[in-house]
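Write out the 3D structure for:
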Amino acid sequence: MQGIDIAVYLQFFVGLFAIVNPVGIMPIFVTLTNHLSPEERIKTASTANIAVAVILIVSLFAGQFLLDVFSISLDSFRIAGGLLLVSIAFSMMNGQLGEQKQNKQEKAESISKEQVGVVPLAMPLMAGPGAISSTIVFGSNHSGPIDYIAVTLTVLVFAFCCWVLFRSAPFIVRFLGQTGINVITRIMGLILGALGIEFIAGGIGALFPGLML
């Protein structure tokens, strides 16, 4: 029976945490839900994280199929995903929150919606291109039945942790302040940049093995 390397899935969990940066998104969550009652805010947090889990799990199981449909190799997708992660990482290290994940038109549309749990919180702020591409690459590299179960559980644990953070968002935002959140965002950006470079290096090494000699 295939064993489970906990460290591999822990790396995936940390990578998701760095990509999504739920601590950095908390001020946005508080702003979008400040007109709601505590019960409605909790419901919105639940909706957002259930949607994130569904989006990432669907990406996990359907990712390889989509790559095959468009005749895209995993290594090419890994390089493209790595470049995207590095781009988001540079934005995070500059202290920008959400600009890379949500454009001005999406922001304007979200203001008029009462239910912000799915749009823009779940997508594109949390389950954006970076998180989706990372999940597809990881799922393609670990495609055994046990791996799919373990990755699915990792995604569910991640969504639950984000839900706990969002429930406590008003208190955490007040405690950390904008400076503290910016520091955490920059640290997450550094981790995300390193993860993106690993993706790029792995893809280039597989496509052009002679370059890695």
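Residues 6-206 form a domain with the Growth Hormone; Chain: A; fold (CATH 1.20.1250).
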